[in-house]
Request: fold
Amino acid sequence: MCKLPDEVTDDQAILVSDIFPTAYFGAELAEVQAGDTVAVFGCGPVGLAVIAALRLKGVRPIVAADFSPRRRELAAAVGADVIVNPSEQSPYQSWREVAVWRDASRAPKLPAWMPGPPLRPAVVFECVGVPGVLDRIMGAAPRGTRIVVVGVCMEQDAISPMLGIMKELSLQFVLGYTGDEFAATLGHIAAGAIAAAPLVTGKVDLEGVAGAFEALASPERHAKILVEPWRS
Reply:
């Protein structure tokens, strides 16, 4: 059990019990190191929380991609450095541009059969949860990429294992979090180190719950809607 710090508002506390500890846990499992290049595909609530967790770890730059203008705006608010609209430019190309070694002497030598230039180690967070996305990421990822699946796909999906074998990709699936991650996230929000406020985009009373679900179907309107039974 964790005592709620005085600095944490009720709105923030609800987010701690929801997505932020999972995102924090995912960032920990990814073992992102200095020099890695990171991309977050999908900037819904889960993707936004992952971006905030990565910023907390000092990861830069963070490439974030989403079709929704509103979600891209929120991605910038929580700390993404490169914001990509996939309908206008390839998120994979934007990611590769930041992954090129600035100091060529530090770049590893590629096998003769692999096209260049060599890229810095890559970590991708799949936060979409839609069939086909994971396979496309595997197809576009450079050799040795670590792919962390945080988005929950509720349907059957298919991937091409040969892509993973040829590129020596690593897949990490994330489910929950431990008490330590929960307590750590709570402490970081209390200290103002995690930008939680941008995710709360609306509040309703009990009568507004049905309408809230309808509103959440549109990514342009909301990220998280809080239910406050005491509201009139």
The first helix runs from residue 10 to 16.
